[in-house]
Write a structure and sequence with these properties.
Low-confidence stretches: none
Strand content: under 5%
Strand order of the largest sheet: 1-2
Number of helices: 8
CATH class: Mainly Alpha
Radius of gyration: 14 Å
Number of strands: 2
CATH architecture: Orthogonal Bundle
Mean pLDDT: 93
InterPro entries: DUF4806
Length: 129
């Protein structure tokens, strides 16, 4: 089951996202994802959240989403993938507020298009953006 999870990430297109959402509907799979994402670590909630986002979502798919679905983008917050990311961060950083984690996700999603352009220009990605 863990191997199945790692074969599904990073999610690069709509088909991959739909497949992941279907896979996460099984509670055991959801728990696997939360546990595995929690293991990625980082020096703090911001770095860990960005690390998880990089692991799970490609910039190609991330640029199509905003947290709330604003600016004619799709809503990430309604997806099981988003819940798994939140749960993994809340499990790691009990002192962090959910709103803090959501704000980190929002910023990361906004910058997806910029990261994609930089990657296409041959500039290395920065985990801090």
């Amino acid at each position: 089951m863990i191997e199945e999870f790692y074969k599904k990430i990073p999610i690069i297109d709509d088909e991959g996202l739909f497949a992941m959402e279907d896979w996460l509907k099984k509670s055991d799979n959801f728990r696997i994802m939360v546990r595995e994402l929690s293991r990625l670590g980082g020096s703090g909630v911001a770095q860990s959240t960005r690390k998880v986002l990089y692991k799970v979502l490609s910039n190609e798919i991330a640029q199509k989403y905003s947290w709330d679905g604003a600016k004619q983008k799709r809503s990430l917050k309604s997806l099981l993938v988003a819940k798994a990311i939140l749960d993994s961060m809340k499990g790691q950083f009990q002192d962090s507020k959910e709103t803090e984690i959501i704000n980190i996700i929002k910023i990361w999603l906004v910058k997806a298009k910029e990261r994609l352009k930089n990657t296409e220009k041959g500039r290395p990605e920065n985990i801090e953006t």
